[in-house]
Fold each of these.
Amino acid sequence: MASSFGAAQVLVASNRGPVSYEVREDGSLHAKRGGGGLVSGLSSIGPDAGALWVCSALGDGDREAVRRGVGEDGVRMLDVPADVHADAYNGIANSVLWFVHHMLYQTPVEPVFDAEFRRQWASYEAYNRAFAEALAEEAAEGAVAIVQDYHLTLVPGMLRELRPDLRIGHFSHTPWAPVDYFRLLPDDIAEQVLRGMLGADRLGFLTRRWADAFTACCEALVGGLGGTETGVHGLGADADFLRKRSHEADVDERMAALREEIGEGRRTIVRVDRTELSKNIVRGLLAYRELLATRPEWRERVVHVAFAYPSRQDLAVYRDYTAEVQRVADAVNEEFGTAGWTPVVLHVKDDFARSLAAYRLADVALVNPVRDGMNLVAKEVPVVSEEGCVLVLSREAGAYEELGEDAVVVNPYDVSGTAEALHTALSVPPAERAERSKRLAAAGTALPPARWFLEQLRALQG
Ligand code: G6P
């Protein structure tokens, strides 16, 4: 058997990897490295230490890279057939599991688990199997493999069968659904998901609340956790990276341009999100509208800087949501705008440097998701904001567990309550605001990505 083992001592598996490729007009491939907690976490170990990241080819560029044998050290991209990936990613992961954990269904008519769902589920199984097989092939004897997120819930169980010698972890970056909601899934599928995850030695969650919800599902549906441990690792923002990156020249440039758009002497309410249903962008805009309607003293004196970047545009419901965000922003500008004042500055083209510029200018950060695993924006803005910011934070974000005490907390469905919270936040005196922001920044950076990852690795290595 020994000859069939691979060389990697530490493996990470995720749908989206650290690099993506684009085919340029001249036919050359251009590699783009992504950011995010997992990227900096794994790079703290690196390929030299035998770390390998198994991820999926996601677009034509990635597939072309796999075909040409182009790649990076420490990354293995799996070229699963495009239709299988589409069913697994769009059909099951993003339209079913994401919806269940974020409780996004319009339940009078959704979900519908029919033959089409069963067909897509078979692709989800095949997709998970491709990952399990690649990990089994690459892992050294006794290696540690940490599988990421709802795209790959079946991998731990499949990998356990192929390679009982491995230490297997799984980390959920999403919330976990409460039992009654999780049971929307057909019984056999719910059970398969739980048993798949319980194939791991250890399951990581972002907050105690999500870990407890998972445990409750296991107790109700499969008789408990068996021998699997759970652990909570509240991923934090990377203070060093953010402080440095936010003072580079491109961010200064974006800041100057944003200042022009905002206008002299005005307060800013900043939000930066993927255009994601669970982020609750529309109710945020409606709350801002209500603030302007009920507190006319803020007119001309505040601007809502809202960045809503494209996400999951293969799904019609996301395309509709994007259009709705644009429509409501336009309506607020139409209703209240004046010759010299645009109440909402909405940008929809992804631009990280501009996001950091907005963070620097933020007086108030609006983070009002209906449900969110953590929400790193809540942790990042206080680190970067120049004058300190007041955080308006949904109690349904994982970040609430760590930041709730120093934030202005909202029920994300309560638009009037959110409008009032925006008023409260804008009215906090500068000294108090700076103090609160400092405490938020400290709490939000307590577990930076590299340590977050190492903590899990150590726990698995025992
Ligand atoms: C969430 C998920 C991640 C995912 C990210 C972006 O944070 O937990 O796994 O990568 O959203 O979504 P996308 O579908 O573009 O990968």
Amino acid sequence: YRAGVLGRRPRVPADFGELERLARRASSAVAWAYVAGGAGEGRTMRRNREAFERWAIVPRMASGAVERDLSVELLGQRHATPLLLAPVGAGALMGDDSDLHIARAAAATGTTYVLSNQGCNPMEDCAAAMGDASRWFQLYWSKDEGLVDSLIGRAEAAGAGALVVTLDTTVLGWRPQDLNLGSLPFSRGVGIAQYTSDPRFRQIVAERLGRPAARPQVTLGALRTLLAMSRNHPGRFLANLRSPVPRASVETFLDIYSNPGLSWDHLATLRERTRLPIVLKGILHPDDARRAFDLGADAIVVSNHGGRQVDNAVASLGALAGIREAVGPGPALLLDSGIRSGADVFTALALGANAVLLGRPYMYGLALDGQRGVEDVIRNVIAELDLTMALAGTPDIASITRDRLTHT
Ligand code: FNR
């Protein structure tokens, strides 16, 4: 903030509109369709933003506080701020070694990074890049129960502070932008690094082939995706070309990465399968929220997956207050989908969230300036939250309450 006031022009714009515009310019059509796109006609994505417009902050004056304390306690751990990085798969579309850059940026800013099950670097490599910094691991419930256990075991060994199970993607949503370009990244092997680095997954591939995993085959589709990715990192094109993912791995991934039959009975087995705190992500109905906590979940994420799964779904922010009312003041609620600024974080906290996750904005920072770009986006959101708290008369997170808002 000071640097900006003193006249240094940042590489990453301080407002979301400009950030989005520049990131789009820096990205291929294929990468932009996947990362920025949403389900169907984009109504859920738009509604996520409109929901924030329905609320206005009512600043209170002369609180007398000089400093703000942005820290929060989540799952028994102190976090420097109520902002976490959401799990985002196929990040390599926005730049090579995406997850390593994000991991380093998270560590440098003291922000918890939720590693995606569909990440582009093995979780062990991300953990090594983060040292002692806080990370959680996000799991899609595979059709193969052995793979579920293997991924959980690896997350524990890689120092994850929580296991986030995403419930809203038992099948992939209807995403016309990707379909029209014929460009879903997973079908080209982008975003399957947690799988190809997994012993149980490799065993499944080998069993299917009846022999150890075969030589890589470069398909036309894979070439197209590699070309699209190399727009962000031209020097890496040849290196990527030399180590393409075998087609059998991609096909196996598509078959088993998620279980369309996922039920509360599956989730009921979680408690005895891991010692990690359990977070269930993708909940929008108060009854599902209650059920999650009855089952022993430690937290939930109120989320519609950034508007990427069900078109014309309820906004995450729209669902939040009802869920808080249903579960009472105690349980930990996180929110994502549509957070774009510090003022948005303030609004979500006032409506009952304990913390929020940021998705696309940090990916846009990555597209513009790698690790530094991610750091800038995080710092901008936190700085604006800090200033909003200063100007609204809320010296700490606990003082951001419902009565700080009014309907517009
Ligand atoms: C996601 N999201 C997601 N969620 C998840 O649980 N596992 C994943 O692998 C992914 N992958 C993913 C890829 C991309 C490109 C996007 C944009 C999103 C959803 C993500 O965690 C989060 O819920 C939303 O991104 C939050 O909404 P905003 O901040 O993007 O509006």
